[in-house]
C-alpha cells in the first residue's frame, strides 16, 4: 500500500524538514501551505529531485471549507491518505494576558485548535476501517509550551497547544479500534522562522540557557520523532507524546 502523507503548514521549518525525511522513507507527500507558494513549490521540486512524489496545495486550515477542498484535491491527486501531520500553527507578538484581545484569541484558536481538529476529522473519515479505510497514523504538533505556559510571551499559544494534547489523548482512544494511531510531538526551543512572528527572530539564542542541553534544537531533530511515530516501528504506540526539548 502506498504511504500518502499530508503535512499542514509544510513550506518551511519543522514541516519542511518532515517532508524531506518522509520523502527519503518512501512517502508520497502533500505539502500544504498558506502564503509561501514559491517556497512550497521549491520544496516540491527538491523532493522530486530525490526521486519521490510530492505536490503543494494551498489552504487556510482555519477555514473549514478550504480544509475540505484540500482533502478532496489530495484524494484526486495522490490517492487514499495514510498519514497526517498536523503541523500548521500560528503565534502572535509576545505580550502578557492583559494585552491579549478576544480577536487575537480567536485567530490563534481558529488555526491551532479548530484547524487541527478539522484536519484530523477529515483524515479519520479516510483512514478509519469503520469508514472503509485501511488505517493510518496522525501526529499532532504540540509544544513544550503546553506544559510550561509561556508566561509573559504567549500564553494563548500555550493554551492552544494544551488543547492539542487533550485532543491527542481523546482521539487516540476514540479511533484505536479503527486502525488509526494518534500521537503528538512537543518541540521545545527550535530554530525556526516562527520566532519572528512573535517579534523576536533571535529568541532561541536568548533563551537557550534555560535548556539543560544549553542549545536550541533543529527542525530535523523534531522531524525524526514525527517520522518514528508515523512508522510501523511505533505500531503499539498511541495516545503518547515525545518531548523534543533538550530536557526542558
What would the average pLDDT be, to the nearest integer? 94
Strand order of the largest sheet: 3-2-1-4-5-6-7
Strand percentage lies at 5-15%
- What overall form do the CA principal axes indicate? globular
Helicity level, as a percent range? Answer: 40-55%
Outline the structure in words.
This protein has 248 residues and is α/β, with parallel strands linked by helices. It has one domain: Rossmann fold. Helix content is 45%, strand content 15%. The chain contains nine helices and seven strands. The protein has a seven-stranded parallel beta sheet with strand order 3-2-1-4-5-6-7, with helices on both faces. The longest helix has 26 residues. It starts with a strand and ends with a strand.
Features:
Rossmann fold; seven-stranded parallel sheet; alpha/beta
Can I get a quick summary?
By secondary structure, the chain is an alpha/beta fold. The chain is 45% helix and 15% strand. α2 links the parallel β2 and β3.
Topology:
Elements: E1 4-7, H1 13-24, E2 28-33, H2 37-49, E3 54-58, H3 64-77, E4 83-86, H4 102-127, E5 136-141, H5 145-148, H6 155-175, E6 180-187, H7 194-197, H8 203-207, H9 219-230, E7 241-244
Parallel strand pairs: 1-2, 1-4, 2-3, 4-5, 5-6, 6-7
Helix pairs in contact: 1-9, 3-4, 4-6
Amino acid at each position: 500500500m502506498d504511504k500518502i502523507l499530508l503535512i499542514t503548514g509544510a513550506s518551511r521549518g519543522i514541516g519542511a524538514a518532515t517532508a524531506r525525511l518522509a520523502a527519503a522513507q518512501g512517502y508520497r507527500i502533500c505539502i500544504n501551505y498558506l502564503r509561501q507558494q514559491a517556497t512550497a513549490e521549491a520544496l516540491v521540486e527538491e523532493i522530486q529531485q530525490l526521486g519521490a512524489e510530492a505536490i503543494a496545495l494551498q489552504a487556510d486550515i482555519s477555514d473549514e471549507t478550504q480544509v475540505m477542498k484540500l482533502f478532496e484535491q489530495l484524494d484526486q491527486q495522490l490517492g487514499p491518505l495514510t498519514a497526517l501531520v498536523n503541523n500548521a500553527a500560528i503565534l502572535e507578538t509576545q505580550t502578557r494576558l492583559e494585552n491579549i484581545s478576544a480577536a487575537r484569541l480567536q485567530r490563534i484558536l481558529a488555526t491551532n485548535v479548530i484547524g487541527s481538529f478539522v484536519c484530523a476529522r477529515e483524515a479519520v473519515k479516510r483512514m478509519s476501517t469503520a469508514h472503509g479505510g485501511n488505517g493510518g497514523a496522525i501526529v499532532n504538533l504540540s509544544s513544550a509550551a503546553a506544559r510550561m505556559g509561556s508566561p509573559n510571551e504567549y500564553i494563548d499559544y500555550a493554551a492552544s497547544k494544551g488543547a492539542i494534547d487533550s485532543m491527542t489523548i481523546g482521539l487516540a482512544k476514540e479511533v484505536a479500534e479503527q486502525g488509526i494511531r494518534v500521537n503528538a510531538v512537543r518541540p521545545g526551543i527550535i530554530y525556526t522562522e516562527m520566532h519572528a512572528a512573535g517579534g523576536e527572530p533571535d529568541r532561541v539564542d536568548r533563551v537557550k540557557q534555560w535548556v539543560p542541553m544549553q542549545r536550541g534544537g533543529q527542525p530535523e531533530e523534531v522531524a525524526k520523532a514525527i517520522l518514528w511515530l508515523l512508522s510501523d516501528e511505533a505500531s503499539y504506540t498511541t495516545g503518547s507524546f515525545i518531548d523534543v526539548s533538550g530536557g526542558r
